[in-house]
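Ticket #4471: complex job returned nothing on first submit. Input attached below:
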Amino acid sequence: MDSRLATAARVAGIAPFHVMEVQTAARALEAAGRSVVHMEIGEPDFPTPPAVLEAARAALAGGGIYYTSALGLPELRRAIARHYGERYGADVDPERVIVTAGSSAALLLVMALLVDRDDEILLADPGYPCNRHFVRVLEGAPVGIPVGPERGYQLSADLVDARWSARTRGVLIASPSNPTGTMVAPGAMRDIARAVAARGGQLVVDEIYLGLAYEGEPRSVLSFADDAFVVSSFSKYFNMTGWRLGWIVAPRRHVRDLEKLAQNLYISPATVSQRAALACFRPDTLALLEERRRAFRERRDFLVPALRELGFGVPVMPGGGFFVYADCSRFSRDSLAFCRDVLERTGVAITPGVDFGEHRAAEHVRFSYTIALDKLREGVARLRGALVPA
Amino acid sequence: MDSRLATAARVAGIAPFHVMEVQTAARALEAAGRSVVHMEIGEPDFPTPPAVLEAARAALAGGGIYYTSALGLPELRRAIARHYGERYGADVDPERVIVTAGSSAALLLVMALLVDRDDEILLADPGYPCNRHFVRVLEGAPVGIPVGPERGYQLSADLVDARWSARTRGVLIASPSNPTGTMVAPGAMRDIARAVAARGGQLVVDEIYLGLAYEGEPRSVLSFADDAFVVSSFSKYFNMTGWRLGWIVAPRRHVRDLEKLAQNLYISPATVSQRAALACFRPDTLALLEERRRAFRERRDFLVPALRELGFGVPVMPGGGFFVYADCSRFSRDSLAFCRDVLERTGVAITPGVDFGEHRAAEHVRFSYTIALDKLREGVARLRGALVPA
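Support reply: We reran it on our side without changes. The output follows.
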């Protein structure tokens, strides 16, 4: 082979997103005049809150759009820390908060800090594909542990214990999870934290969707495990996807090393985004976001029963986020072909389970409820007329 | 050792920036009422051009600050490609342009694409530390090749040939270089490209400072080597540091894999920054930037002779960027201690050579001319009264 074509081994180890194929086909349908109901999109439809836009405008008026500290603006680090106290009852020192270029940067930094060659990180399968890809990019070994509805699609202390090996460095939990929307209850999370600590490992919790929890009072792992790394984001609850802003809360002993890595790998997060994000924590913004959270819950409460009625299996009610992971085996055991076919016949775009791992992935699809209720109704109506049991 | 304190081996392999220590000490002096002349700063003092701020305001008014394509806005990719034609006479297909979250993301993506475990990338020593750190983070082996003034502080085809090993994967050239400001002439770059191609390797050229070249017509490697990867940035010439925006121009055969990596590692670059950057290529913005480039040249033309007169060695006139790499051995052979001492005695902040590699690093310091001419004069005057030959 021409060596100029060669790429690093990791490139082959990272699967492409099959949903991109669905999106390309959906765009082609739209270009041909068909209407498409987009239930494949992983970003909230709600626009950035007005006060955040206003804060961005004020930052532009100030004009000094220079680098910030690699750790982020001190006032934003303080605001994030305060939010943990006010929202989750967790006492977080602002010195432990590191503002990042999205949770993407947060995950890369944490994995760069922790993962040596062939070090294993345990993750739930199904799970968000990028999470395992960050481990792979840094030459670690992501270990997907199959979890089904009987476990709420989540890891537990016993699974962690059973799969721990001499090469295991830590565990990455997403709660709420993408694609399943399920959460790890505080008691179970505490058990996981203990199991990981007993092994001398590290617990990383992706709380990107924690703001969008629909049952009771959501708890951050930080309210009971100071030693966990938390990765979070302004994209989902705060509706700031295009701003590319997230954060890490790290154990204090690791902040200096994360700062060094952030200086080298990112310099600093985008300045306008940071100044804008300060407005996220204003009471009027939080009131608006709570309204939107209720809208998401309303969509979920419509969509899940509707999908069940259509014949999809949704054995666990998603507790947060904006996804439903649905068993489509009544219709197909080839979720990629199923998604193609559903799109072609009904104009409803959904994401094949194969994007989220290997465990029964071909028998599942992901529905997003990031579109308004009337569009969800339209999507369900189209499916009702078109689905045929296999 | 407590395993919870352990970090991946790469963390120890990445040196902290010593300039941070200088900056912390400088801030302490300022807090104590002393005036500091900042000649350590690596970002242009000029604010973001007004038309860019205006374009950002317009993007906010539009309100749809969502994710973009992982490759960036198509219109921005086209504008960057067109700029290569208009400015550098290089014919670049927009499909080869990948917009990134700063040149930081560009370098990470290219190294993630190319570098397998222990693969060597050849770089000049002295050089920008992050460049070698990106290689190390991805488990490659950066190989710093000592280069002095007799080689213009740059690699050449003969050095590449001499240091190529079975593990060498490619060469990373920065032209103009940080810290030396020196450039690789087109003929020499063509020879390097040929030498690398003959070995079946990859040439990556950091052209971050190419817009700030002061002699003749600067050439992009793309005007004669379609096979090179170019990494560039909106930070320096376009004065958009805090916006975190850069780009890659890649050989066409690698664009799909880079897209896959970008989707996984970044999702997309910041949307407001991308919309703002479209205004960089307006004639009025380019006229302003050319004015600022002439101001940088004027500063250089003052600073280099002034430093020589003070007794610093500047054997090669920097051809671009905004740095002077100066031999301080007449005063000290411990550049870190020298920087501390100069700051303490004169309030002039400069960067120790040890931040840029190992080759005679303790006998060099880096001066930035990212401050106005009157401040540069003030800095030189302070040094004149305080420097004592060792």
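Chain A has 13 helices and twelve strands. Closing as resolved unless it happens again.
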